[in-house]
Amino acid sequence: MTEHHNSHEHAHNHDVCIEQALETAEAVCSEQGQRLTKVRRRALELIWQSHRPLGAYQLLAKLAEEGFNSAPPTVYRALDFLLAAGLIHKVESMNAYLGCAHADQPHKGYFLICDECQNVMEFDYQDIHQSLVKKAAEQGFELRAETIELTGLCAECRAQESSES
Ligand SMILES: [Zn+2]
Ligand SMILES: [Zn+2]
Ligand SMILES: [Zn+2]
Question: Where is the signal peptide (predicted)?
Answer without folding.
Answer: none
